Every structure is written in structure tokens, then in C-alpha cells.
Amino acid sequence: MPNLTLADLSSEIEANVRRALAEDIGSGDITAQLIPAERLASARVITREEAVICGTAWVDAVFRQLDPRVAVHWQVQDGDKVSADQTLFRLEGPARALLSGERSALNFLQTLSAVATRCRYYADLVEGTQVKLLDTRKTLPGLRLAQKYAVTCGGCHNHRIGLFDAFLIKENHIAACGGIAQAINTAHQIGPGKPVEVEVESLEELRQALEAGADIVMLDELSLEDMREAVRLTAGRAKLEASGGINDSTLRVIAETGVDYISLGTLTKDVKAVDLSMRLVL
């Protein structure tokens, strides 16, 4: 699937931010009202740890929606690797808006940067191989597109967006359709032009998928020996994706089998927010 870009996400970013601000501010930030409305302030946001940055457009949207008088001055951009204590951006504008937007802005930035950081780590593990690391649908509800964009900032790649843009035929689909060939043939009939991927658990199932014309075959927890044989048998007739039970210690050796893709739920699911801090100056 093609990777998401910021140009694909303008309306999504605005919607993400509207929901976040409504959730956090509700009927009004009563604590910010302690500060005179005319009071101006500046602030800077730093990272307390190394990270790969993602989410600048979401931060911009937070302060733009709160008060267009707020100026955001970035010192980094999406995809940049930063060090502990580095300043990421500075803010200038009404103090109330800076304080009201702080949490929502940092939530987006620290979460999306966490995904980008994790992805850069895994991308570095397979550097020099031809494999592409793919994300999955294991994303935070409401933030799928944002997280998938963050994946690309970390050097990994997007799989299908959801259940609508590509077929992924798994064991239960195969059983319900009466077999691999029947499922693939039906997919081609009802969704011409859409990619058809099928999950297999053996080399025999791989042969069936290839004969039926699958575009991509997911090798579910096959041994390294079987993956190498799968690459030989496929000989470029379909793309091969390794999946299931893959971790830091097995990723590189799987990449070296010659598969085209490796999908990893951990790219978006098992992430720890980057530690950020905002320091206000009145």
C-alpha cells in the first residue's frame, strides 16, 4: 500500500484536534481563567530523552484552533532524531491559550513520536536488507491514520488502512469460503483491482494461494527453513509477508530469508510515550 503523507491527512488532523480539545477543555479551562486574558507569555518544549519526532502538524492545529494569535516556532521537523534536553519548539501568545493547549499538544507529539521512535529502532535492525517493515491495524481507536503516518516518519511502511482497501484472507475466511482458491477467486470477483492477500500456515497452502493468483501471501509463523523455501517456490509470482511471533532477536534473520515484507503489530501497539516538558515564561 502507498504510505500516508501529511497531504493525505489535513482534514483528519483538524478532526483529531477538535475531538482532543473538546475532551480536555469541555465547557472551558477554569484554571486558565485565573490568569488575566490580556497576559502574554512564551514557552519552550523540550524532550527529556532521545526520540524521533512526529506530530508537528497536530501541535500546530491545537494552537491554531485555540487561538490563532499563538505563534509556534519549530526547531525540528517530523522524522528528525533528537537528543535529551533538546528544544523542539517555542510558543508565543496569550498565556491562557498556551496553558490550555499544552496537554493536548504534548499528548499528540509524545504519542506519535513514540511510534516513530519505535519504528526507527526496527528499521535500523534490518538496514541493508531489501525487506519492508509494515504496520498493522493494531492502533489506538481514532488515531489510526496519525499512527500510520508516524510509522513512515520512523522509516517503516503502511499496510492496508482498514478492512475496506485490501483483502486479507485468514483462516476463518478460508473455512467459511470452502478453501483458499474459492476465497481468492471470490475476492477478485467482488473487488477487482484491490490487492488480495491470503494467510497460509504451510508450503502446501502457499502453493494453493499462488495457483489461485494471490497478490500477497502472508507466511504465518513458518520456520526459517520454510520461509526460504517459500521464497524459492514463489519466484516473484507474489509478494511474501512474514508475520507472527517476530521479535528483536528474530527480525534480522527473517529479513535475510528474502521475504518482501515483515508485519509487526508492535510498531503501533507496544509503545511508550516520549517524555516531553513545557516550560512557561510570563
From TrEMBL:
Its EC number is 2.4.2.19. Residues 115-279 form the Quinolinate phosphoribosyl transferase C-terminal domain. InterPro entries: Aldolase_TIM (IPR013785), NadC (IPR004393), NadC/ModD (IPR027277), Nicotinate_pribotase-like_C (IPR036068), Quinolinate_PRibosylTase_N_sf (IPR037128), Quinolinate_PRibosylTrfase_C (IPR002638), Quinolinate_PRibosylTrfase_N (IPR022412). Pfam families: QRPTase_C, QRPTase_N. Pathway: Cofactor biosynthesis; NAD(+) biosynthesis; nicotinate D-ribonucleotide from quinolinate: step 1/1. The keyword Acetylation does not apply. The keyword Disulfide bond does not apply. Keywords: Glycosyltransferase, Pyridine nucleotide biosynthesis, Transferase. Residues 29-113 form the Quinolinate phosphoribosyl transferase N-terminal domain. Involved in the catabolism of quinolinic acid (QA). Belongs to the NadC/ModD family. This is nicotinate-nucleotide diphosphorylase (carboxylating).
